[in-house]
Amino acid sequence: MIKCYVIDDEFHAVEVLSDFINRTPGLELVGSTLNPLIGLDAICSANSPDLTFLDINMPELSGLKFADLAAPYTTIIFTTAYAEHALDAFDKNAFDYLLKPIAYDRFLKSVSRFKGRTVPERNDPNYFYIKGEVKGKLLRIKIEDILYIEGALNYIVIHTTEGKQLTYLTIGEIENYLPSSSFTRIHRSFIVNYAKIKTITGNHITLDDKTILSIGSAYKTAFFDLLEKKSLISKRTGSAS
Q1: Are 29 and 6 in contact (CB under 8 A)?
Q2: Which residues in this protein are found as 4-aspartylphosphate (predicted)?
Q3: Which of 3, 7, 129, 146 could form a disulfide with 39 if both were Cys (CB 3.0 to 4.6 A apart)?
Q4: Does the pLDDT value for residue 213 go beyond 50?
Q5: Which region, left, alpha or beta, applies to residue 169 given φ > 0 means left and ψ of -120 to 50 means alpha?
Q6: CATH homologous superfamily of domain 2-116?
């Protein structure tokens, strides 16, 4: 089941989306709220939803600012009555943009696409193939060779120890495919391989090839929480003799 959450300051909009979710097989409504601050607390938790339907124009916290904070925890589909926000929405790496009043068939098309984006389980977790820039040619990418992945609208650039490759995938699609135990999102445009991080200084990381990347403010907490689990640091107090 895909866990869904609805955030909108209009009660009717929450009712409509809640009804759509409840009558769609494979979806589960785990919560809804009229207050984005309450929604943010619910989403940025251990039980974060898979999919969040988010209004843009809200008084306490705009949906665009909300997306910056919630991006590491959930996939966002924006819902709004204003078409002019579309470019800003996709700049936040939103999965989709639904224009109010939302028709059920348009809603269904969006969630069906979300369901279908899951990549089949790999037979071999050590590598995968991508379409390269030469038509009809597939390129093998060894997962252990990946340094980091850079998102560029509907394309990604995979930076490896052997060079870089451009392919027609979104950063969200490749993020879902890679093992979360080895890779993490540090910015809306960057995914890094933990094993290739050489140093971390403040909000910047340096990779083995000396590339320096910034940790986005929306991803900082999640990144350092995961990093703590991979760190061997004494918790004793006092100075070493």
Answers
A1: yes
A2: 55
A3: 7
A4: yes
A5: beta
A6: Response regulator (3.40.50.2300)
Determine the Cα–Cα distance for residues 21 and 19; give it in Å rounded to an integer. Answer: 5
Q: What's the mean pLDDT in 171-185?
A: 81
Rounded to whole angstroms, the maximal C-alpha distance in the chain is 69
5 vs 30: CA distance, rounded Å: 6
225 secondary structure, DSSP code: H
Give the separation between CA 28 and CA 192, rounded to whole angstroms. 31
Domains in the chain: boundaries: 2-116, 127-229
Q: Between these two residues, 211 and 173, which has the higher pLDDT value?
A: 211
CB proximity list for 180: less than 8 A, separation 6 or greater: none
| Calpha distance 78→96 (Å, rounded) | 6
Position 122 scores a pLDDT of: 44
Q: Which CATH superfamily is domain 127-229 in?
A: LytTr DNA-binding domain (2.40.50.1020)
What's the pLDDT tens digit per position in 116-145? 764 444 444 688 889 887 777 899 999 999
Burial class of residue 233 in the structure, from the number of CB atoms within 10 Å of its CB (0-12 exposed, 13-18 middle, 19+ buried): exposed
> With 0-12 CB in 10 A as exposed, 13-18 as middle and 19+ as buried, what is 83?
exposed
19-64: pLDDT as tens digits: 999 999 888 999 999 999 999 988 887 678 989 999 998 988 888 8
